[in-house]
Amino acid sequence: MRTRAKNFELHSGGTPSLRGTLAKIFILGMVDAGVVFVLLILIGKEKYGLTIFFGLVTLVVNWIYLRRGGLPAKYLTPGVLLLLAFQVYVVIFSGYISFTNYGDSHNGTYAEALDAIQQAAVEPIEGAAEYEIRVVRSDDGAVQFLGFDLNTTKTYIGGESYSKHPWREITSADGLITDESGYPTAFKGVTFLTDDEITEIDPGVTTMKIPLGPDLKKDGFIATADAFFAQQNRFSFTYDEKTRVMTRVSDNKEFIADETVGYFKSAEDGELLSGIGWQVRVGWSNYQKIFTDKDLRGPLGGILIWTFFFAFASVFSTFVAGLALALVFNDQRIRGLRIYRAIFILPYAFPAFLSAYVWRGLLNTENGFINNTILGFMGDNKIQWFEQQGAARAAVLLVNLWLGFPYMFLICTGALQAIPNDLTEAASIDGASPWKIIKFIKLPLLLVALAPLLIASFAYNFNNFGAIYLLTGGGPFLDPTLKVEAGATDILITFVYRIAFSRSVGADYGLASAFSVLIFLLIGSISYFSFKRTRGLEERAQ
Amino acid sequence: MTTTNLKHDKAKRGGVLRWFMQVGWKHLVGLFVIAFSTLPLLYILSTALTETGNIENYVLFRQFYLGNFYDLLTSTDYPFVIWMKNTLILAGVTAVLSVFISALAAFAFSRLRFKGRRAGLLSLIAVQMFPSILGLVAVYGILSKITDYVPAIGLGTKTGLILVYLGGSLGAGTYLMYGFFNTVPKELDEAAKIDGATHTQIFFKILLRLIAPVLAVLALLSFIGTFGDFILASIVFNTTEQFTVAVGLQLLLADPWTKNWAMFAAGAVMASTPIVILFVSLQKYITNGLTGAVKG
Asked: Is the peptide bond before A203 cis (omega within 30 degrees of 0)?
């Protein structure tokens, strides 16, 4: 009740101005016009579910802004809509995906997988005729193949649509004109295409399939690889819709659609049909895999330890450096103080992705500035920054220190200046040494004020993808026996990123999503409990 | 006078040694830190000014050669000027909109009381904990769906990417801004209310004006964040003409042994200079911007 009264008070403060109301109606009108445009497109594409959904959302938005009262919603709606679309949905989607086998080999629906398998697996019909072809265009605009069988010197013609242009033999009676050897030179109703015209055909003659009979999948088709010669082909598999069984034509082996793995699978020996499957729900198996799969568990333990170490060491080193610097330079007697401060924060101001590249150049083993100029005294004993585990980890931490200490310096300086002077003065009058003042007064106050930022920094570094990915890419990859690629500087997030977007093994979004849900829970609970503890600290301090 | 001044006078009398013990050594520390923090920046500037311009740049500033800048600015393979323009539009629009929309939401959280307020604040933080890099699949999925129906705001468009950036930055932005609104005493808006001000007037004319420097800093931080994004932009755009600086400059480093290392250096210098200048000149406000939310 009290809260309502308060809201009422706030927006009854004054009457809305005419200008404000007009602006509101104008903006709302623009938004509505845009939505109507989108809705028309959706209706055009027969997406009625989406149409209704967006229509309803728009109605609600209009209602929020046109009614009296309900002030909080008026301020929150734009942000909430964007957050729902691009953050909340993303989290929920990833959660859902983590229970599926979605990935490169399970990209789409059953129908799409079926189509892809059939299109991909094609083989020539043994002993069938081969043709020398001319690509022609008939008067109705259809591109057709005119095929000349070198063995029988018979000529055939046909197009992609069997009902309109069936593959058939043609003779001079149909209007075919040939040269002395029987080779076709012209045919009634079609024009022979020049090479230039052939290259302009979209999506290209090499993708065309000219059916040999009314059922493309059974009867096979004619295809060409170079627009000069063509073979009779057939699909390597026949599919029975009722039993959902794929039969391999060459050896009559049967593969049954298995909904638990999303593959066609042989009942005899469990052979899976090609690399193409469809998306199915797999329950907890992705999560199970994380904890039980030997290939994953091997590298995972080390990566997890290094991730914690990396995050902790990054926060610790940057904080200690930043704090020390802030304490030393919180001194008005230093000449040029402002210039010092400005230069100290340069690394923070320099775009981080550029820094990573620059450091990569600096640390280059053979030709880098660090090894040759700064450590030049070491002669040929160059440090292999990106080739050895210890050196690579040191390099990552060094660069992250460089990237992060200015931030800590800034916030420590800010927090130091917020400590009232009376406190330190009183202590020094009481005879406390400067070191004791720092230890017993400044540090505790600083820690209380900065604890939330330190926790946030830990969470950030735990998932600091850019720092690792741009500098070392997770490498060096020292153990070639691993089935899942894992490098010496890989933290959890870069490791999972490789699983999600791997080009060599094939992406596994399902597994990667399961990882991200776990990381989410881990980081969320660490942050939650440490925030709770610092709140306790804060209360004791007060 | 204060103790510091007393000490200062004593130090003067005590001579150089005393000065060094109290203040002088701090200059040494300062010089060391300066060497550390500027080394990569001097290195890349020096490389950009070197004619051979490769990674083997052992003695800094031997040359003053501007050809790399000229090459990059006139290159057709690497249209740096277009990248820069794309980046400025993307980062600029995102910065302004995200600050404005965050401010709207933060106003509601700070000044209004409604059901689910606490839960809303908590979920703002919670959602941020999700490793965003792994949301890529979902984000790509959304954008390609949008492309099917409204290509004007889908893949390959700035509008689409801006929407994604906005969605990603609102959580943190709102939370920071919430802290700042809390530092403005409520008595101010109550006084204005009594004088007949509407909520929009309180929002625009009182709150936003009072924290204007903070808004500038948050906009700058958002700008830098967008400027440095090398992942989202690279999945949304696929032609060189659409690239941002962060994506485009990566092209130059595909082979670090070619002359492109010099062009990269020139590009890095040109891309970062305006940001560095802005950042350093806004330094004082940035400190507030980073710590204020916690104090509030």
From this structure: yes
Sign of CA dihedral B86, B91, B94, B100: negative
Q: Which residues of A181-197 are buried (b: 16+ CB within 10 A; e: fewer)?
A: eeebeebeebeebeeee
Task: List the single best residue of B134, B201, B224 to mutate versus A (max A Cβ within 10 A).
Answer: B134
> What is the Cα–Cα distance from A517 to A284, expressed in whole angstroms?
12
User: How far apart, in Å, are the Cα atoms of B184 and each of B177, B202, B208?
Assistant: 11, 12, 10
* Structure token pair of residue A29: 């009108």
Could you read off the pLDDT tens digit of each residue along chain A, which spans 542 residues?
344 444 444 444 456 678 878 888 899 999 999 999 999 999 988 889 889 999 999 999 999 998 888 889 999 999 999 998 888 888 898 899 899 888 877 877 888 888 777 777 777 777 777 888 888 888 888 888 888 887 888 888 888 888 888 888 888 888 888 887 778 888 888 888 888 888 777 677 778 888 888 877 777 888 887 888 888 888 877 787 788 887 877 777 888 888 878 888 887 777 777 677 888 888 898 898 888 888 888 888 899 999 999 999 999 999 999 999 999 998 888 888 889 988 999 998 898 889 998 999 899 888 888 888 888 777 778 888 888 999 999 999 999 999 999 999 988 988 888 888 888 888 888 888 888 888 888 888 888 888 888 988 998 999 999 899 999 988 898 887 777 788 999 999 999 888 887 766 678 888 889 998 999 999 888 888 888 887 766 665 54
Could you give the CA distance from residue A49 to residue A65 in angstroms, rounded to a whole number?
25
Query: Phi/psi of residue A519, each to 5°?
Result: -60, -45
Query: Alpha-carbon distance A400 to A472, whole Å?
Result: 12
DSSP reduced 3-state for A246: strand
Chain B residues within 8 A of A425 when measuring between CB atoms: 2-3
What is the helix, strand, coil percentage profile of chain A, to 5? 55, 15, 30
Between chains, do A97 and B246 touch, taking CB under 8 Å as contact?
A: no
Backbone angles phi and psi of A147, in degrees to 5:
-105, 140
Cα–Cα distances in Å, from A358 out to A389, B44, B51, B52, B54? Answer: 21, 7, 18, 17, 12
Query: Which residues of chain B does CATH 1.10.3720.10 include?
Result: 72-295
Distance from CA of A214 to the nearest CA of B (A): 33
CA distance A98 to A94: 6
Chain A residues touching residue B171 (CB < 8 angstroms): 83, 87
> Is the pTM higher than 0.95?
no
**3-class DSSP state of A222:** strand
Domain architecture of chain A: domains with CATH: 2-97 (no CATH), 122-235 (no CATH), 291-541 (1.10.3720.10)
Contact call for B280 and A346, based on CB within 8 A:
yes
Cβ neighbours of A73 (radius 10 Å): 18
Residue of B nearest to A40 (CA): B149
Q: What superfamily does domain B72-295 belong to in CATH?
A: MetI-like (1.10.3720.10)
* Contact: A410, B134; criterion CB under 8 Å: no
Of the partner residues B104, B198, B291, the one whose CB lies closest to the CB of residue A78: B104
Tell me if A504 sits within 8 A of A279, measured CB to CB: no
Q: Which residue among A351, A402, A523 places its CB closest to the CB of B129?
A: A523
This model of the complex carries an ipTM of 0.86
